Amino acid sequence: MTLKAMGKAARDAAYELAVAPTRQKNLALLAMADELEINEQEILAANAEDIAAARAAGLSEAMLDRLLLNPSRLAGMAADVRKVVSLDDPVGSELDSRVLENGLRLSRRRVPIGVIGVIYEARPNVTIDIAALCLKTGNASILRGGRETFHSNMALVKVIQRALAKAGLPAASVQYIERPDRELVSELLRLDEYVDMIIPRGGANLHKLCKEQSTIPVIIGGFGVSHLFVDVSADLRRAVDVIDNAKVQRPSACNALDTLLVHEAIADEFLPALVARMNSRQVALVAEERAFSLLQAAGASELRLAGADDFDTEWLSLTLGVKLVSDVDAALAHLRQHNACHSDAILTNDLANAERFINGAGSAAVYVNASTRFTDGGQFGLGAEVAVSTQKLHARGPMGLEELTSYKWIGQADYLSRS
Amino acid sequence: MTLKAMGKAARDAAYELAVAPTRQKNLALLAMADELEINEQEILAANAEDIAAARAAGLSEAMLDRLLLNPSRLAGMAADVRKVVSLDDPVGSELDSRVLENGLRLSRRRVPIGVIGVIYEARPNVTIDIAALCLKTGNASILRGGRETFHSNMALVKVIQRALAKAGLPAASVQYIERPDRELVSELLRLDEYVDMIIPRGGANLHKLCKEQSTIPVIIGGFGVSHLFVDVSADLRRAVDVIDNAKVQRPSACNALDTLLVHEAIADEFLPALVARMNSRQVALVAEERAFSLLQAAGASELRLAGADDFDTEWLSLTLGVKLVSDVDAALAHLRQHNACHSDAILTNDLANAERFINGAGSAAVYVNASTRFTDGGQFGLGAEVAVSTQKLHARGPMGLEELTSYKWIGQADYLSRS
């Protein structure tokens, strides 16, 4: 099938999905969860092929781990799908409704976006994840996974197709681009006649490609340098705990701390306590000159002087940038120069500085006396997360089910003309 | 100044605007309205230059009328700016706020989008309009008007600059791309380092250009074929009035009716009444075969058989497509094949068909027993309108001040770490 034919089929399926009752969509999701369990052996066998090929191709252990499915991960995927069943269906709810002076009853009703194209790499659970979230919100999806997980994805798509058939929903509700040709990605990005939104889930290069080539609105997200500013009035003892959490709990996450900004007036007192904790956590420090001297004197075990790009780096590892700043404005100036668009925090007891930081930081999520690690759909109570948007249009930060919907205006009256 | 330098200056201005109090922004708007009146002579003289050049270049009278400023239009512009002053400032309001189980107080606060690029043609009032709406919402704007209104726009930009200075806001809050080079538009569309959103206000070609070249999110809007379906249970006498309003009140508007779909069971009875009214309004009818015969028999004074593209045409004039359909599903099928994405209506007394039409139509605005002409920010009570979006991301239908904002997540706690 050509990509254009897939787009047309998805569009037709989207019309059906848009009016499918929640009960029917949930039926498909429950069937999907069941099928994941029923077909465990088949899925794991397909995954073993991918793993063998990846190992032969010399992929890193970290990469292999991302590709790997096992009974417990598969059970987790089924549980996640059942979780989506339990979430409220946003489609059909009305955002507001009022009667205008002229008698027109005007409301806005949530509707599916339509057809969503998702391009992703590695982790095969994304296939099930996205299919489930799109289905719940009445969107048709066209998926394009990485070639490393091709066999796993084929097995998962079979599971999805069985579930759709069981629930009586069109097969084209979830389609997968099987052919590996790279041009198909470019073609998908220009299929604006049929596709309403593109979600890229992958590295910076994929996002760049989508931004540059897509004629379809793209949700950009996931990247950004995360900062934490320790103000002069912060509780320094507890500050170390929050920094520890932000940096160490899951260094590979996009909400992990990258750069620590310390008010210069408390640097002498604070940095030794920081060094003690970071040494115990095997965190390497990368510091600008003034911070470097103090950290060195405090006995930092892994320490180097920061180079030109270090404060623009999302570490995704146990490395932490450290810099002294003169006040909250200097901290904000640093944020602006260094791509702060994801999660940033201030530790302070000063109400005015807290408000200044909240309003001045350009980040999707801003924290006062809390860890940057909270930026997450699950933590925010959204139940599920499609992506973390760092753009300002449509949705910002963690995107849940509602962010997979649009709305339409509805005007009802008694044969009313505009005067 | 290079476009990149303009982008950087806009970004810096946006930081200031984001925290500017409403009072200061309103001060600038009031000054802008005053300056429009104070500098009436200068603005009209500049406009006269544009008109003379346009006339020499042989532009149509309709086009000349779009370019023209006169004392009453200028007064209208000033009044519109004062209207924006009276609207609530959406920036800073919180969408929701709650305390999570772990003690994190989580809220979403409305913030400006940042820097907005606007590309537009003809009408010089757009310069003031957009500058005012962006300013009110704390967004910096970079404007690129058409060459036909260059002198008018230069005079208006002076007015805006004086107003910004009076209110103590940065000059780069509103910037205008003066050089006429076409490449600058392409360059603006790729200035994603500094610009957060592109609003094209112009013809289909401009929208296409933006969609294809922009690496910045674009708001697509304004176009779409508008339909009205007369169901079998409609009140036929009053139906003629609503159709008259939708087609005739302002044929050049994007919410004017393009295609009339008539239930075949009532065609014999209804079409003669329609013909009588349309004849009296000098509306030309373009009909598919079955409708053609009936309309001809009823004595339609201007009538031709529809060709292949006629039902894909936004007429923007006193022409109306007419087609018979077998039921509401056939009407919806026609909508889907013919780019119904703007405003569509059903006239019916059947509750099930009304709901079916509401949910099945893919339009930004759907009406039951009301004219398509209501799709308008002013009519919807938004107070002002930046554009009418026909895309599904971010905003749909008429966009007011709120649609010029984004939001940020704010988490506040007492030194809270993620568990």
State the secondary-structure class of chain A: alpha/beta
Computed Rg of chain A: 24 Å
Total count of strands of chain A: 16
Low-confidence stretches of chain A: none
Largest sheet of chain A: 7 strands, parallel
Our count of helices of chain A gives 14
How helical, in percent, are the residues of chain A?
40-55%
Largest interface: A-B, 71 and 71 residues
Quaternary state, please?
A: homodimer
Distance between the termini of chain A: 51 Å
Which strands sit side by side, in order, in the main sheet of chain A? 10-9-11-8-7-12-13
How would the global form of chain A be characterised? Answer: globular
> From N to C, what is the helix and strand string of chain A?
HHHHHEEEHEHEHEHEHEHEHEEHEHEEEE
Mean pLDDT rating of chain A: 95
Percentage of residues in strands of chain A? 15-25%
Function (chains A, B): Catalyzes the NADPH-dependent reduction of L-glutamate 5-phosphate into L-glutamate 5-semialdehyde and phosphate. The product spontaneously undergoes cyclization to form 1-pyrroline-5-carboxylate.
Main location (chains A, B): cytoplasm
Pfam families (chains A, B): Aldedh (PF00171)
Catalytic activity (chains A, B): L-glutamate 5-semialdehyde + phosphate + NADP(+) = L-glutamyl 5-phosphate + NADPH + H(+)
